[in-house]
Amino acid sequence: MANRFEIDGEEVLDGEVKPFGNSAHVTVPKRWRGTDVKVVRTSEPDGGDDE
């Protein structure tokens, strides 16, 4: 069963985490530069890489 989180915010973006070197990233709009954001994982990892 998933945890439930309640976050006050301005905008929600659905996206996919993509590989980036030895890490991963999520692309957000340029207008979000310099803002505070929170990332919530909503599915289990596919098991492709170890942490």
UniProtKB/TrEMBL annotation:
Q: Which domain of life is it from?
A: Archaea
Native species of this protein?
Halorubrum laminariae
Q: Which Pfam families match?
A: DUF2080
What protein name does the entry list? DUF2080 family transposase-associated protein
